[in-house]
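Page 47, continued from p. 46.
Same chain as before, 121 aa.
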Amino acid sequence: MEITPLIPAGRQVIERYAAIGFRVSGIIYRGPVLIFPDRTIAWPAPAWTPDALLPVVEHGETELLLLGLGLRMSPIPVSLRTVMKAHGIALEPMDTGAACRTYNMLLAEDRRVAAALLPPA
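Result:
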């Protein structure tokens, strides 16, 4: 029985993650990344601020942003949640492994999801 989710062609699938970075749709990214269904970008400023997450707002198609916080959960600023909510984007903080798995599952369901991921180091 096939249990791998069916992902539409051209979508960015998280294949692997490690302490040094991520492999997304066959391309290796070192360090933090922002992943959207249609593209992945290196994230040079991994901070939980509205400015650091501006590319998510500018993308314009995200309803849910998964925050991969590394190996453990940590609090995110309430102001960040407030700003993102004003743009119609809900935030879900979790450890990076859970964020990767959740992103792939929601992508398979064709949801409007993105992920901001720190390597699990």
